[in-house]
Specification:
Chain A is α+β, with helices and mostly antiparallel strands. Chain A is built from 5 helices and 5 strands. In chain A, the strands form 2 sheets. The first copy, chain A, has a 3-stranded mixed sheet with strand order 4-3-5. In chain A, strands 1-2 form a two-stranded antiparallel sheet. The first copy, chain A, binds a DNA duplex (30 and 30 nucleotides) through α2 and α4.
Chain lengths: ~140, ~140
DNA sequence: GTTGCTTTGCAATTGATTGTCAACTGGCGC
DNA sequence: GCGCCAGTTGACAATCAATTGCAAAGCAAC
């Protein structure tokens, strides 16, 4: 009986097929990205990677992020102007609500908003390649 | 007969009322921001400011942008991850469509999208303080 | 004008990211 | 399995945007 594949996308296979080497540092970084659902920045990914392999360098984290971004495997964000934060691109597209007090990031999705965006772009003679919708808010006090 | 006020908001008056000095560099920078409808970055504002007063420094541009942002007089953007770009906050709120080929920025507004955003935030127990919606697209070829 | 506190220009600094380069290593070919 | 070698890496220098420390200069109240 074949081993049941995890829900993690097999980026290793994909990279190899694209002629990119699957090295130890890359494996470590990919593993970090596919086993979290938060939005770490490069330094945070670096910290986690060093726990696994203390020879990994920060440059390699940045290089790998750029590589994976090129493959569309991750998305890059810049919530509130800070350092870039990354998330695994697997799974459905979604937008973000950032809690201004805690920094928490909540994901949401609205087909109706997406449809309106397309409509607006079309009216302006454009085709949307991608978009970025970020809501910055505070929890409503329900004391 | 009183001089007809221009359509430029009187930031000078507002700043003075807030106990902030209206200095020559600030006047120059504010004048640049209120007389353009594009989205210049700090370096571009600096270049334009030097034309008027060649003693103005880039630090002052950055400092003034931060000051004005604090007053809500300007908005800060980071389209596509480049350096921060600014725009006069006077006038109605709007979102942006960025032409991926030319870098042009087109402003648009959709009450329906705003309403949906509020609805989503409310459902998540949040109150939106501000938001950022950027569409990145390409002109549809109309050969 | 004088005065006092703000603001400025300059230079140095920070923080994030990218470039350089010698050393290293996946993974194909044997 | 084993060696080869272009793709990668780690270390560190370099770059880029943005900020800050400080002495000198400027604004606004008297």
């Amino acid at each position: 009986m074949p081993k049941r594949a995890s829900n993690k996308p097999d980026y290793a296979r994909e990279l190899r097929r694209a002629g990119v080497r699957v090295t130890r540092p890359r494996r470590v970084i990919i593993d970090i990205l596919t086993s979290t659902d938060d939005h770490p920045d490069a330094m945070e990914i670096f910290r986690r990677a060093v726990q696994v392999d203390n020879s990994i360098s920060l440059s390699t984290v940045y290089r790998t992020m750029k590589l994976l971004e090129g493959f569309g495997a991750i998305h890059r964000h810049a919530f509130g102007g800070g350092p870039a934060r990354f998330e695994n691109a697997a799974g459905e597209h979604h937008d973000h609500l950032i809690d201004l007090d805690t920094g928490d990031v909540i994901e949401f999705k609205s087909d109706r908003i997406e449809a309106l965006q397309d409509e607006i772009a079309k009216a302006l003679g454009y085709e949307i390649i991608h978009h970025r919708l970020e809501l910055y808010g505070r929890k409503k006090r329900g004391t």
